[in-house]
Amino acid sequence: INAEYMGVCGGAILTHTQYLAQQAPESTSLSVFSTEAILKLEEQLYGSDPLLAALRLTAGHMPHLAELLEGLQVNHSVTVLEINDANLTEVEIAFLGRVLKMNPRLKQLVLQRCGLTDNSVAGLCDELRHNKGVTALDLSFNPSIGDDGVRALTGLLQHKPLLRLAFHHNNSLRHHRLNGVHFSSMELFAQTLETHTLQTLDLSDTKLTCKSVQCLAQSLLKNNHLCFLDLSGNRFGDEAGVALADAVEHNSTLTHLWIATAGLSVVTVVALAQALLINSTLTSLRLDGNRIAQLPEPQHLSNNIYDEFEDDASDPHAQSPPSAGPVIDGELYLDPQLVAHATEQIAHRYHRLEGLVALGRLLCSTTTLTELTIGSCSIDDEALKAFHEPMQQTPPQGLLSFSIAGNSDFEHDGSMILKNMIMTSSLATVNVSRSTEVVAERCILGVQYTERLTSLNVSHCRLRDEDINNLLDALSNNPANALRHFDVSGNPLTPPGLQTLATLLHRNVAPKLTHLHICGVTDLSLLPDMGVAVVLNIGQALERSTLTHLYMGANALVDGPFYQLLPFAKKWKALEVLNVADNRLTPAGVAHFRLKAPRLRLEVD
């Protein structure tokens, strides 16, 4: 996988901000915009400071936007420009466009929550046609962009070989006449995609309807460049889901397909499983938040019909729409006899667990699919048993990352199945966050019997101190363990439980551990003396630990105990990042710590 274009690194799914932070050695995002700070930033821009590779601006920078953009125009070091939470005017967008035209070194442009309109997008796209550097464009969280903006974006794609495009969390105005993005403009966009060089496309949470997604699926039959496609949060339903499955069967470049919370059921899952028996490129499939262990509901189908009607009715470019039928409280209701007939037909054709059985068989038959996420899908013991049954004969050896987070219906049988998967399969990453305590306990015990598991997320599972003791024992009994990432955030631990984690670091029972998340596990302010003792133990343990990233936010940490880390900081050989966000630290306390430990990257947000 080419992480440069996927936003995926080391098996972990990164947010856009996290991805950019990894790509750029240094970035600038100011929270206090004094005159001195602005002058220093301008000096870095005009001097092409090699440490300034990413320029991130917010609303506080807008009074100085003209000067900063003029500096960017002659800058040779900045490759990432990100403007967030700033209501840019069309004049400012036009000025930005002229700067982009003159700066071929800029590679990534992010304009999130900038109040972009169709006119400003059209002007920006006109200027970007002449820019030779930008290959990644993010226009997300701009709900005022409508059909004309998408048409301008489509025109840009026809003239410019972009590699990455993010357009997520837009289109909240779709149901308002003459506003929003509708099928007619998405159809043109999909047709352009057929032959475009775009490698990453994020259209999540944009209210795409069934017809729009079907057009995108049709484009995948001809497209031979797209590797990453995110359509999550668009409740387009099984009809479009089956169309995507057919496209996956014939497509030879797509490696990541994310269709979480898309209104899908067992119907789409069966089709996808069959398609992936033929497909040889897809490595990551995300199905979270779908009814993959349930039959489709006729009412959901009728709501999709109503969404299509609404899309056509408010589309200024659409032909006269057909009647949508009876609508009550914003939902389309089918005739009861039609509902009964549809239910009978679906029940005769599918069993509710057929999709999970098909996925289980697929994992036993392919080594291509390495990542599967089926979180928040209301999977219970019976459903997980159906999923796992094919694996009892042939354990999957291709699956490396498995997430079943957010399923809280597991009991004893389901927890034993997950433990067995950790022990017998090739799994390297397991996420059971927000499941049950018994599931997390079994996964922790499974660590003792595998040398392959590198990442375990048991956050928000109501674990207790004794479960941390069990983890310590499991790691101690398995000196060859490969655990690198461990997340126990959101579990109600006491200071003694945190001291056990410090012991885990001090004794080095996880010699490869690099990332530890202990956010929101306790309130250190309730027991100040115990809080100081915990911090001292952690500080001392880090002297011998291989840990490079420690996340300990939201634990009510105050300046006093925090300062107890300073005497140890100079002796930390491995630690690079310390995240203390959402604690009770003062700005002066943070500044003092940074002054005394300049080598450490201290994150407070």
| Largest sheet composition | 19 strands, parallel
Oligomeric category:
single chain
Strand composition percent: 5-15%
- Poorly predicted spans: 1-32
Please name the defining characteristics of this protein.
alpha/beta; two-stranded antiparallel ribbon; flat; 19-stranded parallel sheet; disordered N terminus; 605 residues
If you had to describe this structure to a student in words, what would you say it looks like?
- The chain is an alpha/beta fold and 605 residues long.
- It has a 19-stranded parallel sheet, covered by helices on one side. Strands 1-2 form a two-stranded antiparallel sheet. The protein has a two-stranded antiparallel ribbon with strand order 13-14.
- Strand 18 (455-457), helix 18 and strand 19 (485-487) form a beta-alpha-beta unit.
- Helix 7 (147-159) runs parallel beside helix 8, helix 8 runs parallel beside helix 9 and helix 10 packs parallel to helix 11.
- The radius of gyration is 26 Å and the shape is flat.
- The relative contact order is 0.05.
- Mean pLDDT is 86; it is low at 1-32.
Task: Draw up the topology in text.
Layout: H1 3-6, E1 8-9, E2 12-13, H2 16-23, E3 27-28, H3 35-46, E4 54-57, H4 65-73, E5 80-84, H5 90-102, E6 108-112, H6 118-128, E7 136-138, H7 147-159, E8 164-166, H8 183-193, E9 200-202, H9 210-220, E10 228-230, H10 237-250, E11 256-258, H11 266-276, E12 284-286, H12 298-313, E13 327-328, E14 331-332, H13 336-349, H14 354-365, E15 371-373, H15 381-388, E16 401-403, H16 412-424, E17 429-431, H17 437-446, E18 455-457, H18 465-476, E19 485-487, H19 495-506, E20 515-517, H20 528-541, E21 549-551, H21 559-563, H22 566-569, E22 577-579, H23 587-596, E23 601-603
Parallel strand pairs: 3-4, 4-5, 5-6, 6-7, 7-8, 8-9, 9-10, 10-11, 11-12, 12-15, 15-16, 16-17, 17-18, 18-19, 19-20, 20-21, 21-22, 22-23
Antiparallel strand pairs: 1-2, 13-14
